[in-house]
Amino acid sequence: MKIFLLLALALPALLFVGSQPTFGQADPFNRDPRREEEAKVVKDMLAKQQSEREKKDHEELLKRAESALEISDELEKALQDGGQLDSSKEKKLVELEKVVKRIRDDLGGDDDEEEEKEAKSSPRDLKDVFVALRKSTIQLVEEVKKTTRFSISAAAIQSSNTVLRLVRLLRFRS
Q: Could you tell me if residue 17 is inside a domain?
């Protein structure tokens, strides 16, 4: 009985002493303020880098949209001068398709599911297709300019799909 009584008194004392941090151990509930400040600085730096990267990506998106418009203008002028699709116009169409695909991908879009419906209503004359291509490209640029780096524009994605459909129509027509 004495042993049991002795153990009953000694056990809580041993548990109390064992739970106290020894020299050199960090208390998990009392954090080091320097480490917390370092972690905050790192988090702030990463957030700033991400924000700058998103801003740069959005500026590149706007530049690609302007580039698509320039290519579309060049194609329309070339059609007015020549009237037929030659290899230089074909290269411009491929370039325009690449730029618009990149824009659509950056906006988070993918292929249009209503392509067959629109293909039936697409213009048949070569000149009309180029006019529609330019109008669609202008609409795409306007929609991209309305976006921010924090938004996704369904209208811009739809416009990019329309431009791609017209480019493919022209490429495979020749």
A: no
For residue range 88-108, what is the model confidence (pLDDT) as tens digits?
888 889 999 999 999 999 888
Residue 21 lies in a domain: no
Domain that holds residue 129: 41-173
> Which candidate, 11, 33, 3, places its Cα nearest to that of 19?
11
Rounded CA-CA distance 52/55 in Å is: 5
**CA-based angle 146:148:153, to the nearest 5?**
60
DSSP per position, 108-144: T----TTHHHHHHTS--SHHHHHHHHHHHHHHHHHHH
Domain tally, the chain: 1
DSSP string for residues in 52-80: HHHHHHHHHHHHHHHHHHHHHHHHHHHHH
* Tally of CA atoms within 13 A in the half-sphere of 159 that contains its CB: 22
CA distances from 132 to 2, 24, 53, 148, 161 (A): 101, 75, 34, 26, 13
pLDDT score, position 85: 72
